[in-house]
Amino acid sequence: MPGRTDPLVVASAEGVRLTLDDGRELVDGMSSWWAAVHGYRHPALDGALRTAADEYSHVMFGGLTHDPAVQLATRLVEITPEPLRHVFLADSGSVSVEVAVKMCLQYQRARGRAGRTRMMTWRGGYHGDTFAAMSVCDPDGGMHSLWKGFLPEQVFADVPPADAPPAEYDAAYDEHLAGLAAEHADELAGIIVEPVVQGAGGMRFQNPRHLATLREIADRHDLVLVFDEIATGFGRTGELFAADHAGVAPDVLCVGKALTGGYLTLAAALCTSAVADAVSDERGGGGLMHGPTFMGNPLASRVALASIDELLRRDWRGEVAAIGDALTTGLGPARTVPGVRDVRVLGAIGVVQLDHQVDVPAAQAAAESHGVWLRPFRDLVYTMPPFVTPPDDVDRIARAVVAAAATG
């Protein structure tokens, strides 16, 4: 399937720079799709991978277990909210969402409510490209409208209102969420949202108070509340997990991307004991109906442990705050660029939204001329730099985003 433009060929990467096969260096403004938060060739993560390779490459997770996966599951329970006590290690973010949806369905089945087979979410979201995940992505503005008629039809609330000046908390939206849930309560198994930041669906920020409302709604109707933190987990928004902005814990939490620092594919779906017990109940299926070949892969588990340790060892809050401050200043000039609709920053996320579709090849060329790699999409030119990006390089990234927006 040929692309519209030839991709750039990366020959090597180190720190926050990608070296192309023609010798050019580009500062990575994308953290390789938001995963490489420590940059490239990090000594601690490299060492963990070598150690794991000397032990074993893979061990099946059926009837066998191993220390790296046990340690990782223990660490994830330690750093996530207290109700989350059980861990399912999956092999990608999309698969963790599939697992989360299955948990919701099996929970309701164990409660004697097998007719509750739909999920509630809000428009504007993105949860992955596998089928259950696609069904809870935005049904119109997302990438999956081609599958309409085949995907399950879920219950969609309106897009959450923007939480950026001059917008304020919108209590009427909470009433909309509560009314929609009440209307469909008898057919809903759970609620799934990306907390605080909607990622690939539009890079929108929402008020954390809406998460507390969703928690109340889920409790009222005995729904499983799922937070998809695949993009936002591990510090990206300024809190370790985005839901921490609201002080709210879900029943199921999906994490991925930065979990391994971008080294290997790995994700996890954590859940409460109530969900785990229901899934294990004979009425709920007698166990989770999912078994990826590479779940709990020891190479990925060792690297994930090293990535979490490295993150918590450093002043990650200070790093993220510094990037956010620099992006706020550096993206300011974009507000005067013709065609720019909005400029917003949260944590180590900077977004310039246009009033038209981005000319992606032109925008990427403009960024490359500044020595930066960006990957705009739809009407957005955005950046999520590695947390270790030096100040001069953050400034360079901001200038590249402004130039790409002006060109695109």
Q: What structural category do the secondary elements indicate? A: alpha/beta
- Through-space gap between termini: 25 Å
- Strand order in the sheet with the most strands: 4-12-11-10-7-5-6
Q: Write the element-wise H/E pattern from the N-terminal end onward.
A: EEEHHHEHEHEHEEEHEEEHHHEEHEEH
Residue share in β-strands: 15-25%
Low-pLDDT parts are: none
Instruction: Assign a percent range to the helix content.
Output: 25-40%
| Inertia-based shape | globular
Beta strands, count: 16
**Could you tell me the mean pLDDT?**
95
Outline the biggest β-sheet.
Answer: 7 strands, mixed
Number of helices: 12
Radius of gyration: 21 Å
Describe the 3D structure.
- With 408 residues, the chain is of the alpha/beta class.
- The chain has helices spanning 31-34, 43-55, 67-79, 93-110, 131-135, 171-184, 209-221, 273-280, 298-313, 316-330, 360-369, 391-407, and strands at 10-14, 17-20, 25-28, 84-90, 118-122, 155-157, 188-193, 197-198, 204-205, 224-228, 252-255, 267-272, 340-346, 349-354, 372-373, 380-383.
- It has a seven-stranded mixed sheet, with helices on both faces.
- Helix 3 (67-79) runs parallel beside helix 9 and helix 6 packs parallel to helix 7 (209-221).
- The longest helix is centred in the N-terminal third of the chain and has 18 residues, at 93-110.
- The two termini are 25 Å apart.
Give descriptors for this structure.
alpha/beta; 4-stranded mixed beta sheet; 36% helix; 16 strands; 12 helices; 7-stranded mixed beta sheet; 408 residues
